[in-house]
Amino acid sequence: MKPARHRFVRPLYRYLQVCVTLLLILVVTDSGQTQTLTTFRIANGTSGENPAVLWVGVEQGFYRKHGLNVEVIYMRVGSLAASALVSGDVNAVLTSSNAVLNLAAGGLDVVIIGALFQRPEGDFMARPELKRPEDLKGKLVAIQSIGGGGWANNMLALDYLGLDPDRDNIRFIVLGDQPSRIQALETGRAQASWMGSTFSAPLKKKGYTLLVDLSRVPIPYVGSSLVVRKTAAHQEAKTYEALLKGTIDSLRFFQKPENKPVVLKTMAKHLRLNRVEDAETGYNAMVAAYSNDLRPKPEGLQKIYSILSRTNPKLSTLKPETILDATFIQRIQSSGY
Hints:
Number of helices: 14
Strand content: 5-15%
Number of strands: 10
Helix content: 40-55%
Number of domains: 2
CATH class of the largest domain: Alpha Beta
Distance between the termini: 65 Å
Largest sheet: 5 strands, mixed
Radius of gyration: 24 Å
Order of helices and strands: HEHHEHEHEEEHEHEHEEHHHHHH
CATH superfamily of the largest domain: Periplasmic binding protein-like II
Shape: globular
Structural class: alpha/beta
């Protein structure tokens, strides 16, 4: 009769062998999946909360699910992001429709394949002593860059208020990201500026004047959108459809109330906020602003096109609808995804 110790050691040894084998299989399988992921870089030039759905998509693995290793790269101004797209350093840019119009007017084959926003968003804020739209005449408005998405939102706000920069001697001063523009308002270097909800909230508490809540302006609009090189996108259609599917998954996750704590943590981290709860205003704004229908709609371009055409004569020969390519999202939607 074998000692009791040997009766237990041999089965235990075999059990451990099986566990190690299974672990090796899992490691090799996971390694293989990682190696097959396609690197996909998205540049954005906004310092606000607009790219939040992309951050969530990366951190929750929605893009990896569709075979993409997505990197979201912040660049200080939209023009740098656009240059990176043109040079091929990035595969897509999250930017405004007016930026795409200007690029297309310059002869580049850029198109919008998915629009995250179908209406304007954010707040046009002014110093406390400015109470009425006419108080802005002869004043300075802080912007991130000329021709960027923030510039477009400033122009939409002024247009809604019945103001014209040329007629009313309203000048723009380029000051960079939103914290820099807030500082300019606080020091009096500028008197007004558009900014996202996360950054306008503290100013409201300090008594600064909300001149326009753009989310309440009833005009169709194509806001921050996924912009790509048309030729590249059609050559690698599956890759770009994977991008849109991952974004759809992230949008669905973002908008479910039970996922709010996770989303707030992600937003606070990327916005470099001291407290997670400081991201709540921006979170609420994005839940309301993000569109479940990513199809870029031609009617949303008309307003910003009419504003841009005043200063860019090249746009007179461009049909706005040519910068929209809904074929990718239409294929996804027709598949029932």
